[in-house]
Design goal:
alpha/beta; Alkaline Phosphatase, subunit A; 2 domains; globular
Length: about 550
């Protein structure tokens, strides 16, 4: 009989103790209750910026973004402001399975972020979030045809107007299909390490935060799938690490950062219906539908747009129209966008995922006007001071909790890709947005024409269970950087010296599982040369698929 150690990572994006604990107490999540009662639990701290791509990159590499290089969904590409969707080439550090390859250990990887395009490994891989539609998403290649035949989907996207119940059924379906694919691969592979990311809970919460019963149904489904994994693989040699890379909470307000920078004189902009300088990832993802296009054509024939409706109708009528018109009609008007005048802009906010402000630095940005050195540092000091002074004009409370210079948060060879200033909103009650304001002030309602009901928050879940894990171990808070070194230690492998995390030795039954810290191999991941034109084609293809 084979008694080699095995590790299984189970990620559930967006899961939170706020939802899980009441369901455990009411005996609706028996398998998570088993994890909690017979294993070790804690709160997983998400590092800034809080989103899945950054979090998973830190989890899989054991390193801070200054070393792994993933800060945003988008990446600015050499010498201009145009953005492209990131891929695996943006990840500058080795992942867990790349270390395991060096020791001839086999991995099964399913649906993890920042794995497209999939690359050769000792095992099998299905890439995850932001995979280019209709492209090869597996290693080895022959799995791609099998996936298509099974109806496997990379991600879950909502058609505008789709009901909560319909979207719920789609979420359950994609969760079940992904799970069965994962199980089939595990049963047919002599694996040492496996990892899967279930994203349906996160996707559903983002659009239907107020649908408590349906959200609870997704948690119960997740628990059932977890039970299936335990039934099949709790064999006395497999250790399970169950976690969410971040939590979720309700959002009431948006903070239009570029509009605030404009009011403070740091950014110059125009407002018109041309393509936005900073397209909003999630707005683009959920905003397109055929009915709106038809209404837009009718309004165009009547020569009515958002630009001129104010001239055609009285203000009071317009305000009434905003509140009583169906959402489809309101969204049919050509959207006004914020267009940056780069030659007169000192600072700008790239995207909500980055949680950071960039300085338009001379010799770094295409039209940079801020001189490096004293002028750069003085401008950062000024913006940081203004962010701390910022008050909600409705409540007069602080909008921002904490602000960092990038070098105060991160360190490493990929620090240059970080925003110059990183901030966190107060209690994560405000969602920073790069787009044109949808209200008279730079602080507006989250329930506008492009409503947001919830957003990521720092507190994730961590539960460890298995033969090597102590029972009732209290972890308090767990760093995302600690998961990769813990996996290597559980497998008895040496640890690279450049890890930013440490093994969670206090949850292990026996210290014999530890490995001495060594520098047995080059910790730097090899960089991939990229064709710029192809990468922009990929960005357009991904966004086009989302729009459809």
């Amino acid at each position: 009989m084979n008694f080699k150690k095995r590790i299984m990572l189970i990620g559930v994006d967006g899961a939170s103790y706020k939802m899980i604990n009441p369901l455990i107490k009411s005996n609706h999540l028996p398998n998570l209750k088993r994890f909690k009662d017979d294993g070790s639990t804690g709160t997983l701290n998400s590092n800034l910026p809080i989103h899945s791509l950054n979090s998973w990159s830190s989890i899989l590499t054991g390193k801070n973004p200054g070393k792994h290089g993933v800060y945003d969904v988008f990446d600015r590409f050499d010498g201009h402001y145009r953005k492209r969707i990131i891929d695996k080439s943006n990840l500058k550090a080795k992942t867990i399975w790349q270390y395991l390859d060096l020791f001839n250990l086999k991995s099964v990887i399913v649906n993890l972020p920042v794995t497209y395009p999939p690359s050769p490994l000792n095992g099998v891989m299905i890439s995850g979030m932001l995979t280019t539609p209709n492209q090869m998403c597996t290693y080895p290649c022959h799995l791609n045809n099998e996936l298509k035949a099974s109806g496997y989907k990379i991600d879950l996207f909502r058609v505008e107007g789709e009901s909560p119940s319909s979207y719920y059924e789609s979420a359950i379906d994609i969760m079940s299909t992904r799970h069965q694919t994962f199980v089939d691969l595990l049963l047919n592979t002599d694996w040492d390490f496996s990892a899967i990311d279930y994203t349906s809970i996160s996707r559903f919460q983002q659009k239907f935060w107020n649908q408590d019963e349906l959200i609870q149904g997704l948690y119960r489904k997740m628990d059932t799938l977890l039970g299936d994994l335990l039934d099949r693989f709790d064999d006395g040699r497999t250790t399970f690490l169950f976690f969410s890379d971040h939590g979720y909470k309700s959002i009431e307000k948006k903070f239009f950062v570029n509009e605030w920078l404009w009011e403070k004189g740091y950014l110059s902009r125009n407002i018109n219906t041309k393509p936005a300088t900073f397209p909003d990832f999630w707005d683009e993802l959920f905003s397109s539908n055929q009915d709106s296009k038809m209404i837009e054509q009718i309004l165009a024939k009547l020569k009515i747009t958002k630009d001129n409706i104010g001239k055609l109708l009285p203000d009071l009528f317009i305000e009434t129209l905003k509140h009583v018109s169906p959402m489809k009609l309101r969204k049919a008007f050509p959207r006004e966008n914020l267009i940056v005048d780069w030659k007169n802009t000192k600072a700008y906010f790239l995207s909500e995922q980055s949680q950071g402000i960039n300085i338009n630095l001379k010799d770094r940005e295409p039209h940079g006007i801020v001189k490096p050195g004293f002028e750069y540092e003085r401008l950062r000091d000024d913006i940081i001071r203004e962010l701390y002074r910022l008050r909600d004009p409705h409540t007069f409370k602080n909008v921002i909790d904490v602000v960092f210079r990038r070098e105060e948060l991160y360190h490493g060879d990929a620090l240059e890709f970080a925003p110059d200033i990183i901030f966190a909103p107060r209690n994560y009650e405000y969602l920073p947005k790069p787009s044109k304001r949808t209200s008279r002030l730079f602080i507006g309602s989250a329930k506008d024409l492009y409503p947001v009901y919830s957003a990521p928050c720092p507190d994730g879940i961590f539960m460890a269970f298995g033969p090597q894990i102590k029972r009732d171990g209290d972890l308090d808070r767990v760093s995302q950087y600690d998961i990769a070194p813990t996996v290597l230690s559980l497998l008895g492998l040496p640890l690279p010296k450049d890890f930013d995390g440490e093994p969670m030795h206090h949850i292990l039954k026996d210290n014999d599982y530890y490995a001495d810290v060594q520098s047995s191999y080059n910790p730097q991941a090899s960089l991939v040369n990229i064709d710029k034109d192809k990468m922009f084609e990929r960005t357009n293809a991904v966004m086009s698929a989302f729009m459809q």
